[in-house]
Specification:
The complex is a heterodimer.
Chain A lengths: L8 E4 L5 E6 L11 E6 L6 E4 L13 E6 L2 E6 L8 E8 L5 E3 L3 E5 L1
Parallel strand pairs in A: 1-9
Antiparallel strand pairs in A: 2-6, 3-4, 3-7, 5-6, 7-8, 7-9
Chain B lengths: L2 E4 L3 E3 L5 E8 L6 E8 L5 E8 L4 E4 L7 E6 L4 E6 L8 E9 L6 E4 L3 E5 L2
Parallel strand pairs in B: 2-11
Antiparallel strand pairs in B: 1-3, 3-8, 4-5, 4-9, 5-6, 7-8, 9-10, 9-11
Classes of the chains: A mainly beta, B mainly beta.
Chain lengths: 110, 120
């Protein structure tokens, strides 16, 4: 159960779009449509942003979208805003009622 | 609205054990699992394991097998995580999170975290 691979950091100017990748294997990301994404501000608990690859919980802006191709899932933030600056983690079901998180990506709004 | 309220910070000696609690306030555990997620200082999230209270079944990440025990008391809507043989690597914030049974890995409600410091 190795952590899913994410870029350490991504950045963009306000209004731009950024995409965060999350690469796993056929035993996790590629094997199930159970990829979720979490936003975490410093000192706070994570917040669910995307689940089941591309579904948004109520209250999450539609600027956040998710997708998956093969063993790689992606989170796109469109129309980047200052409050989007945070750490983002992907998570995938890995079978046998186990889950695995990604390594995390720091999003910086320039 | 359900909230998960966790126990307070702990300081433990190397080699000892820690037991953290997670109480559902304003609701119950029914139809959900409870997972525990660890975050060391400046590090990422790490899924440790989970329990489905209505079935009493538990599952653990390989890394923590044999060292972590997750239990739940449905009568008090409280889940527990006990981690033994602590080392300095155990210094971390431990979160509990509610997980949807229909969608594994979907943690929609989180506790505020329990800070555990392992120090001699």
């Amino acid at each position: 159960q190795s952590a899913l691979t994410q870029p350490r950091s991504v950045s963009g100017s306000p209004g731009q779009s950024v995409t965060i990748s999350c690469t796993g294997t056929s035993s996790d990301v590629g094997g199930y449509n159970y990829v979720s994404w979490y936003q975490q501000h410093p000192g706070k608990a994570p917040k669910l942003m995307i689940y089941d690859v591309s579904k948004r919980p109520s209250g999450v802006p539609d600027r956040f979208s998710g997708s998956k191709s093969g063993n790689t899932a992606s989170l796109t933030i469109s129309g980047l805003q200052a409050e989007d600056e945070a750490d983002y983690y992907c998570c995938s079901y890995a079978g046998s009622y186990t889950n695995v998180f990604g390594t995390g990506t720091k999003v910086t709004v320039l | 609205q359900v909230q998960l309220v966790q126990s307070g910070a702990e300081v433990k000696k190397p080699g000892s054990s820690v037991k953290a609690s997670c109480k559902a306030s304003g609701g119950t555990f029914s139809s959900y699992a409870i997972s525990w997620v660890r975050q060391a200082p400046g590090q990422g999230l790490e899924w440790m394991g989970g329990i489905i209270p209505i079935f009493g079944t538990t599952n653990y990440a390989q890394k923590f097998q044999g060292r972590v025990t997750i239990t739940a008391d449905e009568s008090t809507n409280t889940a527990y995580m006990e981690l033994s043989s602590l080392t300095s690597e155990g210094t971390a914030v431990y979160y509990c999170a509610r997980e949807r049974l229909q969608s594994p890995g979907v943690f929609d409600i989180w506790g505020q975290g329990t800070m555990v410091t392992v120090s001699s």
